[in-house]
Structure formats: structure tokens, C-alpha cells
Design a protein that fits this description.
Na+/H+ antiporter like fold, homodimer, mainly alpha
């Protein structure tokens, strides 16, 4: 009988392996991801290496093996896709960062972060663009590059890579530095979108003061609109889950709804040409403040760890991918005849990245310090050095931008473009490896006493594991007594200088916000202490009623 | 300064919205998924509707809206892709089913399940193929179809859709029926792969007894190899996590490793032309028996709910998608001139599906009952009716197979092929809606006393939420005292008839397995009670050491 079912069935099971080559690549990729996780675990106690460098090195090694096996024809399994990166890989990482960020640190330093992210990026971009124009014109590759390319190079290398920052800075060890550098990376994105919009809508031939005003107006619109969209999405999810009490029937629905609403906010922002990164980041913050407290206990644990896991896997994926892509033979072939040019270009770029970042970190830190009352709140010089250093890494975002500017869907035939791609790859590799490897030891060297790691974190983590995402370990918006006391202590010192006058608004805003939150927001949207929890665990109840 | 950064930056942020249309579709899709979840929650207490029907209806309505808005040009947002379905959507669903399945029920009924899945599918396939050949030849569409098409139709409509089964049958209410129908769906897949392999390797001109033997041999090889691969992947994950004690450093790594290893097993099976569905199902079973007990408490909660959530979202996605795809105007245009033919074809197919399933459920149940000792273990006639009825649904798998057979990458120009596609869609819609809507009431009507839902499930769920995935509510392989007592009771009745002699092996195998498991397997691979848990929750410890 079996034979009767003729060869025409042949197509049926084949469709699950319709593209054999892609199944092979996926196997290798997933196996490598597993390897990265296991090796990352084994190297956990090593004080130099971090997970991203492990993944990068494994990717590089795999690239070499593939290159040798394919006899120099190909080194990567998948073509680098910007859509894959921006639509699927980046949103969960940024959302998780917002979900787990320490809200207190972030909002206390909000002004500084915005200053760094907006003004700092512009300064860095200008320095790099100007430097590249001056230096490349004296090299032989200058002829093929237009003014637009120089500006693009400035933008590509001005943006701090948020994903790299997540890997090298530790939120619990250095909360101030983490929130400054990572927050800057998030605001960066809004800056680049607004740059684009500003440039598109104005006549660039007539540069006058109005352009500056328009630019500021656009930036504010984009910043506010993106933030608002994220906040609204978060509040909507909190309201739906609180009102419908979805956990009564199914824990899975709550988790699914949180995931989907967060993602929806990101793609809505993309749809409306806003900054999706900013939106999803604020959506994460609002969700951790309201929604997370409205769901069942098991949903809380699940969301906290599932989002972190997803983010972790995607980060590893990105670094593995960048590592494998680095050896793309197609681009290196153009460069191989004149290796000195490529090395020179890479060195110039790396130097300009260093200079561009220094050009805004130290002056802006100085400005920021002027507004701070107590010496303990100021950014010390050593911390400035770390901020400068930790933000130097360029990662997958730079790669994606470079591919977009200098290639047509991943391929290029122009020698200059190939040099730019390989130089970008070199800068990404060198900055991630060298700066990445050095950051942990640098922090330990520069800030040895201030943050004794063990004692703080044992408490911090036990607390956070049980009651909240990490953010609530130091409650800021949570309205707990601790944070209230903190602030009262600060306010005992009445304004007695210009700096103090400038500081007070932050705390006043904070107190007003907490009052507003407690009186209006939390009764509607839930949040810690505002959702009645039955004596028995909500988990039990969620299952019981499924059969009615 | 902003103006200076010229229009060339214009490309940069655009890459995140490179394909505006696809961003629009994704927005609609994600928003609809959210709507499905909320509406599904509101309809939870409705006794007729289930989640899949809600999603299907929402998909249909959206299809109508899009059809009207695009003025009859298009009705779906994404083209149905078999790769998307088989490589991304199906594996997590089947893995989760294995992860949460009641292992006792599954293994006690293993022989019956295999009988249904292997022999039953062949019978059903033959009935449908033969019926279609006889009837279609008398209709005008018979001319364009070849023998291969008939055989394909048989295969398309013979396979029970595991995803649909998950939605209509409830593991806790009707464990026997669930394990039989769902297990059959899993074994189905192996049958179709072996059919394909058998047909490819043999000369179909010479049909003799050797083909039957080869066929059986191939089926056994495929079944054993796929199962073994899944078991090995599961054991490897258990061993790695137990040996390295990954939870010590990071909960996220454990969850990531479980996810990735499960997925790796699926794509490895695809790579080696095995049955990925069977592999990932057994990987899920092994992971819930060993690996799940080796991870930290928070990883347990996370994996249990995250896998269930993922599976739930993907199931909803599939039904939404099938609903939206159903109105694909391209195919219906061919049919519109002669609507009677399409209705006739759909009716014939639906009738043959009913007949084909009846042709094996009742005879094979009779055979299976012959081997059962006590009347309580036998499949009653009423249960047979439910098995027959609940397995009638045809879903996304049938759609995917039909698209593969009758279209070229989603499009067709042949009228007969268009009729086959639209008929498949009709059968899928009608079977899912009608049979789906009727299953819950039918079960309530036919089995009113046997399973009082509330009392059983309150206990079952509280237990399962706290200690284990659902599977361990009725521990079979867990070595608990309860299941041991169960078996002793059974074995008090010494073999006193042919049926009893045939039953004993199952229980003997079970006891031997439990001994083997306790003596050899669990000390190596962990599992319940074999992983030392520190007095404080492992969650705390996992965080503490992250900074060293």
C-alpha cells in the first residue's frame, strides 16, 4: 500500500527542508549560540572577557573555518540584514533595558542624559565629519567620497552602541555611569532621526538661524511624541490587564499581551517615523512601573526572566553575527592589494572616534556639574574618563548604518566603498575588543573604593529577584518610604547657592510626580501595592477557573 | 549645525522603515493578535467558542475589511509561507506540547497512539485517495488531476492537525482522549515523512511484498531515529545544566540553553531528513522530566510559562493567518464563475474526511480494546466517537501542504489548482469552525459524569503550578509513591486471560523503566529529587555571584 502512494508525495515533507543550505546555516548558528552560552558561563569569573567578546571571537573563528572550508569563497552564513536587525533584534533588547533599568538613576540624571545624547552626539558627529574631510582629502581615497559620505561617516561613528554598553557597564556596580552612557545611547537614536527629518524638510542652501530653531523644534516634537507613545502603550497594557484581570483565567495571556503591546509600540513608532528605540524604552519603563505589578506572581517571574533571556540571546546573536560577518571576503578582496590604506583609514577613524567623544564628554560633564549642589552628585573626573571610554564602542548599529550607506543590499563593487566597509568592521572589532576588554579593569582601577561589589549586590539581587525587576531595588517612583526619606535628607539643605537652586527643581518634580502618581495614576493603572492580591498565590487562582 | 549634516543622512533612519508596507502589515497583525487575546479572555466562559475560532473569525473579518479597502484587489497582508510555518511557528508549539504533556497517559497509551498515527493515517489516506479518484472522475475537474494529485489530496486530508487538537481537547478534563488524538497527530508526521522516503527510494512499477517490508523498516528507522535524537538533545541539556550548574551565575542562561537546544534538535532532525515534529516532541518530554528539575526555581516558572505563552501566541497567529488568507481573491476569482463545482468539491472532501477517519478510529479502537484487561482501560464507544470527531479538524498543516502541491510559491494560474486551494480553505474553515464549535458541547453531552471538571482541576492546577509542568500532576516517570500504588493495584489482578497477558508488558516495562531511571539516569541527568536544592531559594544565589 505504501508503494501505491506515488512519487508525487515527494514534495510534501520536503517543504520543511525546502532550502537545505539555510537549514544548515541555522543549525550552525543555533549550535554556536549554545556554545557561546556555555563558554560564557565558564568564563564568567574571568575578569577581562565578557559575553560579547566571547561571541565575537567565536564568530570570527567560525568565519575563518567557513572561509577555509569554502576555499576562500565565503565566510558568513547569512547576509547582514538591516531589517532583521532593526525590526527583530533591537526592539526586545531596548525594551528589556527599559524594563530592568533603575528608574531613579535614570530620571535623576535625565537632563544630563539628554544633554549627552542630543548635544554630545552633534558635537561628536561634527568633529568626526570635519576630521575625516581634512584627513581623507590628503589620502588617495578622498576623491571618491562626496560631502554626503563624510556626513554619513560622522553619523555612523558618532552614535554610541546601546547594546555594547549593556554588556560592559554593570547597572548594579556603577548605576550612575550605566544610566548616563546607556541613556545617552537611547537618546542618540532620537537625535539621528531628528537630524534626518530636519535635513529633509529644509532647504540646505540657505543656512540661517531659523534652521537651528526648526531643528530644536523637531527634536522636541520627536522626543516628546516618541516618549508619549511608549508611555501610552505601557499605560494601556496596565489598564487592560488591571481592568480585565486577565490572570484570573490565564497567566499566558498576560505575558503574551505585555510582549505584544511592547512590540506594537515599537512598530507603531516606526510607522509614524518616530524613534522606535525611545518609544520601546519608555514603554518598558512604564510597564515595569505599572503593568508588572498588575499581573500574577508567576507572570512577574516569567516576564522578568523571559525578557532578560530574549535580550541576552539576541545580544549574543548580534555579536556572533558581527564576528562572522567581519571576514566577508567580498569586501576584503578590494582592500587586499593595498592593505596600508585600509589600516590608515581605520586608524584615522578610531582616532576621531576617541577625539569626538572626548570633545563632548568632558565639556558637557563640566556643564552638568555646574548644576549639581553636593560634590557627591557631580561627575568626578575619573567617572568622566569611564564615560568617555565606555561609550567608545561601536557595534552592530554602526555596521548596519555603514552597510546602508556604502553598499547596495550588502554588496559593493566600488573600491572606496569596500574600504569604508572594511574600515567600519575594523573599528567595530577593535573598539569592541580592546575597549570592551579594558572597561572592566579600568573601572576597577579608577573606582576601587566607591563601589564594593559584593555586599551591595547580595542585597540588591535577593531583593530584586523576589519583589520586582531590578529597577525597584532602589525605588524612585514606587513611592516607598525609603526613597521618601532619601529626598527629605536632600531637602534639609535649603538652596544656598546657584547650583542648589538649579538642583531643587529635580527633586520638586520628583515629589510632585509621586503625589500625582499616588493620587491619580496608580488607582487607575495599578502598580505596587495598588492591586489587591488574594491571600493564596494568584498563580493558583489563575488555573482554577479555566474549566468553567 | 543641524543643517550642515546634509541630505545624505537621509538614508540612515529610513532603514528601520525600509519597507513601509510590511511595517503597516506588521502593525495590523500585532494589533489583531492583541485583540484576539483580549477577546479570547472575554469569551473564556463561553462554552462554545474557543480561542482558535475567535482568531479565525477575526482573521476573516480583517480579510473582508482589507478586501473592501483595497477594492477587491487583495485580502491578506502576508503571503502564506511554508517555511515560516514549518521552521518558526510549528516547532515551539509541538515542543511545548511535549513539555506539558501528561507523560503517564502518553506512555500507557503508546501502542494505541502509534497504531492510530501509523496504520490509521494510512487507512484514512487510502480511503480519501480512492474516494476522490472515484468521485472526481465523474466531475469535470477530474481531467486535470493526475494520480499524483489524488495521492497528495489523500495525504493532505489524512493528517490530523495537532495544533487544532491542542485547542479543542483539554488535557486535564479528558486526558485519555487528549493523549490519543494529539499523540496520533505527532506520529502522523513520521508517517508522512516515511511515506515520502519509501516512495522516493523504491521503483513503483514493481509493487511486491518487499516494498511493504521496506516501508515498515523505514518507518521504524525514522521513528526510532527521530525519537532518539529528541531524547539525546533533552538529555544533553539536562547533563550540561546539571554539571555546570549554570543557574549559579545566571537564570537567563539556563532558559536560553533549554530553548536553543530544543530548537537545535528540531532543525537537526530537519537537516537529517527525520521527523522534526517527533524529535522536538520527545525533546520536550525529556526536558520536562530531567532538565526542568535541574534549573533554578525561577527558571522553572519562566520556562513553564514562557513556552506556554510562545505556543499560545503562535497558535493564535496561525489561526488569524489562516482566517485572513482564506479570502485570497486570486484563487477565488477562478472559482467564481462556477461556484457549484467548488461547493461540490469541498463537500466531497469533507465527507471523505469524515469517512476516512471513521474507517480507522472504530476498527483500531476495537483492536486496541482487545489488549486491555479491565473495562475501565478500554476506549468506550462514546470516547471513540469523540476521538473520531476531535481529530476531524484540518488546519494550517493542510493549508501548507495544499499550497505546496497546488501552487508555485503561493500563486497559481490553473483553474483546477485554484479550485483545490479554495476547497482546502473551505474544508479547513468549515472543519475548524463546525467541528471546533461542537467538540466542547459534544464532550459534555457524551461524557457528562465521568469527569467532573471543577473538583479534579482545582487540585490538579494548584499542584502543577507549584511543583511542575502539568505533566507531573499524575506522575508516571517521576517515581512518586502515588503512581507506584496505582500500579500495584493493577498488578494484584494476576493475568487470567489473553487480554491481561497482553496488558502486563506495559506495566512491567514501566516498572523496569522506573528502576532504571532511578538507578542510572537520574543520578547522571538530574530530575525531581536528584538535584540538591539549597535551603534558600536558588533564585537568590543565582544573582549573588554575578559580580565576582
Amino acid at each position: 500500500m505504501g508503494g501505491e502512494l506515488s512519487y508525487v508525495l515527494s514534495k510534501l515533507p520536503m517543504l520543511s527542508t525546502s532550502d537545505y543550505a539555510s537549514v544548515v546555516s541555522m543549525n550552525i548558528f543555533v549550535a554556536l549560540l549554545c556554545a557561546c552560552i556555555v563558554i560564557g558561563h565558564l568564563l564568567e569569573e574571568n575578569r577581562w572577557v565578557n559575553e560579547s567578546i566571547t561571541a565575537l571571537l567565536i564568530g570570527l573563528c567560525t568565519g575563518v573555518v567557513i572561509l577555509l572550508m569554502s576555499r576562500g569563497k565565503s565566510s558568513h552564513l547569512l547576509v547582514f540584514s538591516e531589517d532583521l536587525f532593526f525590526i527583530y533584534l533591537l526592539p526586545p533588547i531596548i525594551f528589556n533595558a527599559g524594563f530592568q533599568v533603575k528608574k531613579k538613576q535614570f530620571f535623576v540624571n535625565f537632563m544630563t542624559i539628554t544633554l549627552f545624547g542630543a548635544v554630545g552626539t552633534l558635537i561628536s558627529c561634527s568633529v568626526i565629519t570635519f576630521g575625516v574631510m581634512q584627513i581623507f582629502k590628503r589620502m588617495d581615497i578622498g576623491k571618491a567620497l562626496e560631502i554626503g559620505d563624510y556626513l554619513a561617516i560622522g553619523a555612523i561613528f558618532a552614535a554610541t552602541d546601546s547594546v555594547c554598553t549593556l554588556q560592559v557597564l554593570n547597572q548594579d556596580e556603577t548605576p550612575l555611569l550605566y544610566s548616563l552612557v546607556f541613556g545617552e545611547g537611547v537618546v542618540n537614536d532620537a537625535t539621528s532621526v531628528v537630524l534626518f527629518n530636519a535635513i529633509q524638510s529644509f532647504d540646505l542652501k540657505q543656512i540661517d538661524h531659523r534652521i537651528g530653531l526648526h531643528f530644536i523644534g523637531n527634536f522636541l516634537y520627536l522626543f516628546v511624541a516618541s516618549t508619549l507613545l511608549g508611555v501610552l502603550a505601557g499605560l494601556l497594557s496596565a489598564y487592560i490587564i488591571k481592568k480585565l484581570y486577565i490572570g484570573r483565567h490565564s497567566t499566558d495571556r498576560e505575558v503574551a499581551l505585555m510582549m505584544l503591546m511592547a512590540y506594537l509600540s515599537y512598530i507603531l513608532a516606526e510607522l509614524w517615523y518616530l524613534s522606535g528605540i525611545l518609544t520601546v524604552f519608555f514603554c518598558g519603563i512604564v510597564m515595569s512601573h505599572y503593568t508588572w505589578h498588575n499581573v500574577t506572581e508567576s507572570s512577574r517571574i516569567t516576564t522578568k526572566h523571559a525578557f532578560a533571556t530574549l535580550s541576552f540571546v539576541l545580544e549574543t546573536f548580534i555579536f556572533l553575527y558581527v564576528g562572522m560577518d567581519a571576514l566577508d571576503i567580498e569586501k576584503w578582496r578590494f582592500v587586499s592589494d593595498r592593505p596600508k590604506t585600509s589600516v590608515a583609514v581605520s586608524s584615522v577613524l578610531l582616532g576621531l572616534v576617541l577625539a569626538g567623544r572626548a570633545a563632548f564628554v568632558f565639556p558637557l560633564s563640566f556643564l552638568s556639574n555646574l548644576t549639581k549642589k553636593s560634590p557627591s552628585e557631580r561627575i568626578s573626573f575619573r567617572e568622566q574618563v569611564i564615560i568617555w571610554w565606555a561609550g567608545l564602542m561601536r557595534g552592530a548599529v554602526s555596521m548596519a548604518l555603514a552597510y546602508n550607506q556604502f553598499t547596495m543590499s550588502g554588496h559593493t563593487e566600488l573600491r572606496t566603498n569596500a574600504i569604508m566597509i572594511t574600515s567600519t568592521i575594523s573599528v567595530v572589532l577593535v573598539s569592541t575588543m580592546v575597549f570592551g576588554l579594558m572597561t572592566k579593569p579600568l573601572i576597577r582601577f579608577l573606582l576601587p573604593v566607591t563601589h564594593p561589589p559584593t555586599s551591595i549586590n547580595i542585597i540588591g539581587n535577593i531583593d530584586s529577584c523576589h519583589n520586582s525587576p531590578k529597577s525597584i531595588t532602589v525605588p524612585f517612583l514606587g513611592g516607598s518610604q525609603d526613597s521618601e526619606n532619601d529626598l527629605d535628607v536632600n531637602e534639609i539643605h535649603r538652596p544656598n547657592s546657584i547650583r542648589a537652586l538649579l538642583t531643587t527643581p529635580t527633586h520638586t518634580v520628583h515629589r510632585l510626580w509621586r503625589k500625582f502618581d499616588n493620587t491619580f495614576m496608580r488607582p487607575v493603572f495599578g502598580g505596587r501595592g495598588f492591586v489587591p492580591v488574594a491571600p493564596s498565590s494568584p498563580t493558583d487562582q489563575s488555573g482554577v477557573q479555566q474549566w468553567q
